[in-house]
Write a structure and sequence with these properties.
This protein is an alpha/beta fold and about 350 residues long. It is about 25% helix and about 25% strand. Strand 10, helix 3 and strand 11 form a beta-alpha-beta unit.
Length: about 350
C-alpha cells in the first residue's frame, strides 16, 4: 500500500507520519529517506542498514517479552523526529553517507536470525516508521518462519499506516519522550498527541506487546508534576500493567551542554510511578537490582531478578509467580523452572 497523496501542484504528499511532507519531484522528506521520484514516494533506504547486532532482549528495553532471549537488531539512516538530544544522532541525522550502509535483504536478515538462534528481530537504532516497507517485508518473512518481530519507535505515525505496521509487530517499545506539548515542540520538533494516539492504539487495538520508555533530562521533562501526569495518563488509558522504563540521558547532539541524568532523578521518577499504582516500573542504563527487577503484582515478591541486563533469578513457571500463582503480564516461555 502506498501512503501518499498526489497534489494539484504536481507535488506528492507522504502520509506515513504526522509531518505529511509535501514533496516536489526529487525532494526528500524530513526523514531524508522518503523521496518523491517522478510522482511516487519511494524508500531510498530499502534493503540497506547500518549494521546488524545480536542483543539481549532486555537492551531494547523489553523486560516482559521472552526474558534473556537473543534479538537480531538493525536500523537504517534518518528519522522523522527532530530530537535535539538524540543518542543515535550519527545515524538518525545522517542524510546519505553510504559508507555507513550495508546491503541486506529481508531474506538475508531472516537467515542471519535463524543462523544465530535469535528468537526475534528488532527494528531499532533509528525509527522503523520511516522504513516501514523494509520493516514490514522483513517482519512478514520472520513471522512465517516462527521468529518474533519488535519495533523500537517514537510512535510518530499516522493512523492508517500504523494499522499496517503494528499488524506485523509482536512487541514494541515506544519512546514517550516527555509528557508536555511544549517539550515535544521545543526539543523534538514534533507533537505529543499523535504519539499518545499511537500508544493507545497499540495497547487497546492490537495483539502487539507494549512497553514504554521515558528518557529523563534534568530540567526538561523530569518534574514531579510531569511524571505524575504521565503515570496518571498511562493508568487511565492503558491500565496499570504496561511496563514503564525510565532511562538516563547522556550529553549528545545539540544537548552537549546538559549534564548526564543522576540515578537519584531516575529513582525519584521510579518511586512516583510505583506509588501511582503502576505494577511494572524500571530504571534503565543506570540501574540496580531493586529497580531493574520485576515484582509480582499480587504478592510483591521478586519474580524476575535482574541487575541491569543480567538475570540473577527467575521465579516464574509458565509465566506465573511461583509464590502465589498470579500470572505475570507479558510474553513468556512455557515450562520454565525457577532457579
Amino acid at each position: 500500500m502506498k501512503y501518499q497523496n498526489v497534489l494539484n501542484d504536481n507535488r506528492v504528499q507522504c502520509t506515513v507520519c504526522p509531518r505529511n511532507c509535501k514533496l516536489s519531484n526529487g525532494q526528500e522528506g524530513f526523514c531524508h529517506v522518503r523521496k518523491n521520484e517522478n510522482g511516487e514516494i519511494i524508500l531510498t533506504s530499502y534493503g540497506y542498514n547500518t549494521g546488524l547486532a545480536i542483543d539481549p532482549i532486555e537492551k531494547k528495553p523489553l523486560y516482559h517479552f521472552f526474558p534473556t532471549s537473543s534479538v537480531l537488531s538493525f536500523g537504517t539512516l534518518g528519522c522523522n523526529m527532530g530530537c535535539q538530544f538524540c543518542q543515535n544522532w550519527q545515524t538518525t541525522k545522517n542524510k546519505s553517507d553510504s559508507q555507513l550502509l550495508n546491503s541486506t535483504s529481508p531474506e538475508e536478515i531472516l537467515q542471519i536470525a535463524k543462523k544465530y538462534n535469535c528468537k526475534s528481530v528488532a527494528f531499532t537504532y533509528n525509527d522503523p516508521i520511516i522504513f516501514l516497507e523494509y520493516a514490514v517485508d522483513t517482519a512478514k518473512l520472520c513471522r512465517l518462519n516462527g521468529i518474533k518481530t519488535i519495533a523500537v519507535t517514537s510512535g510518530y505515525i499516522n493512523p492508517e499506516p500504523a494499522k499496517e505496521f503494528f499488524k506485523y509487530m509482536d512487541a514494541a517499545n515506544i519512546d514517550l519522550k516527555g509528557f508536555s506539548e511544549e517539550f515535544y515542540k521545543k526539543n523534538c520538533l514534533a507533537h505529543l498527541q499523535p504519539v499518545l494516539d499511537t500508544i493507545k492504539y497499540v495497547k487497546n487495538e492490537t495483539d502487539c506487546w507494549l512497553e514504554l520508555t521515558t528518557m529523563l533530562i534534568e530540567g526538561e521533562n523530569d518534574s514531579e508534576d510531569e511524571i505524575n501526569s504521565e503515570c496518571e495518563w498511562i493508568i487511565n488509558n492503558l491500565g496499570n500493567t504496561v511496563p514503564l522504563h525510565f532511562s538516563s540521558f547522556f550529553p549528545s547532539y545539540k544537548f552537549t551542554d546538559k549534564k548526564s541524568t543522576d540515578f537519584s532523578t531516575l529513582l525519584n521518577a521510579y518511586k512516583i510511578a510505583v506509588n501511582s499504582g503502576l505494577k511494572y516500573v524500571y530504571t534503565g542504563n543506570l540501574s540496580n537490582q531493586e529497580t531493574s527487577s520485576t515484582y509480582c503484582k499480587n504478592c510483591h515478591n521478586p519474580i524476575i531478578i535482574r541487575n541491569g541486563y543480567e538475570l540473577l533469578g527467575y521465579n516464574l513457571v509458565d509465566g506465573k509467580c511461583i509464590f502465589c500463582g498470579t500470572e505475570c503480564d507479558g510474553r513468556f516461555e512455557k515450562h520454565n523452572n525457577s532457579k
